[in-house]
Design goal:
It contains 11 helices and 12 strands. It is α/β, with parallel strands linked by helices. A 4-stranded parallel beta sheet has the order 4-3-5-6. A hairpin with a 5-residue loop joins strand 1 and strand 2.
Length: 306
């Protein structure tokens, strides 16, 4: 009964205002999302969506977020509406949102269908490339009526991305293994944004040929690939202990040269504005590894008289 009443209230609030122009934006599932007016009560169900909305100038339109939305700090003061697979639908409806933004990979098609069945306008977000982030900022600005702020943020992101690309273009390549988790051993495939970041920094993802976004691999495959750099991600500011388990295999080039690095997951695994902070850190780490390799080559030449 509570959900039914909330649905009726929501239907009333979503009636187009007299003279208001409709807004239509295509989401990442290819579906056209149409609002009668700029959204004023937005629910975000993914951390990267929350960060993008704030960057687009629409933070004050948020009325609730998912459990893991912890940036920027203002997001911590918002009501929690659930996590990626458990959502409090009754509470969500009581908030009378005029737009719900979900993460396709994290929330899934079942959640999208449930939200749509409740009569809620749903935008599906799934940035796969770095270039998708400024486009998403612009679309969020359009949906929330903050086009100017969103355009400024998008332009700043594009400019910084261009600077990073120019700075690391043409650098000697390094074979990189990016480790998401240790048990099971998980990495990123070639369609994942992190793989693009590795390429941006002059690296080569040793598992770029895998189609899955986050495939499982085995130890033997890593040993055969013999990465020159191993990068681990983990929540929090400190490297995970399992990163240093690789020292058990001193035959790996990454271990011989002590190229075991760490990037905080929030900076590189969220498809939001801070991903360029993660990219910059990774680029600096690969440049350090590159310098080690160059010093090793010079040392070998001196020893052999070359």
């Amino acid at each position: 009964m509570h959900i039914l009443i909330a649905c009726l209230l929501l239907a009333l609030t979503l009636q187009p205002a007299v003279g208001a122009a409709e807004i239509s934006v295509r989401d990442d599932s290819g579906r056209l999302v149409t609002l009668p007016a700029p959204a004023q009560r937005i629910v975000s169900l993914a951390p990267h969506v929350t960060e993008l909305l704030y960057a687009a100038g629409a933070g004050d339109r948020l009325v609730a977020v998912g459990s893991y939305s912890d940036h920027p700090p203002a997001a911590l003061r918002l009501p929690r509406i659930g996590n990626h697979d458990v959502i409090d639908y009754e509470r969500l409806l009581a908030l009378q949102p005029d737009l719900v933004i979900v993460w396709q990979s994290g929330n899934g098609a079942r959640t999208v269908r449930r939200l749509q069945a409740l009569g809620l306008p749903v935008f599906v977000s799934e940035p796969r490339r770095l270039e998708d982030i400024p486009r998403t900022l612009e679309r969020f600005g359009r949906l929330s009526g903050t086009e100017e702020s969103a355009a400024t943020a998008a332009a700043a992101f594009r400019a910084r991305l261009e600077r990073l690309a120019a700075r690391h273009a043409g650098r000697p390549r390094l074979r990189v293994f990016y480790q998401i988790w240790h048990a099971p051993l998980m990495t990123v495939g070639g369609r994942q944004m992190i793989s693009q970041i590795i390429e941006l920094c002059g690296g080569e993802n040793v598992f770029a040929g895998l189609a899955s976004l986050a495939p499982q691999v085995n130890l033997e495959a890593v040993l055969v690939a013999d990465p020159e750099v191993i990068v681990a991600s983990e929540q929090g500011p400190q490297p995970p202990a399992w990163l240093y388990d690789w020292r058990r295999w001193p035959q790996l080039a990454a271990v011989r040269e002590n190229n075991l690095y760490f990037v905080p997951a929030d900076l590189i695994q969220r498809q939001g504005p801070r991903v360029l902070d993660g990219a910059q850190l990774l680029c600096e780490q690969l440049e350090e590894a590159r310098q080690k390799r160059q010093r090793q080559v010079r040392g070998d030449r001196r020893r052999t008289g070359g």
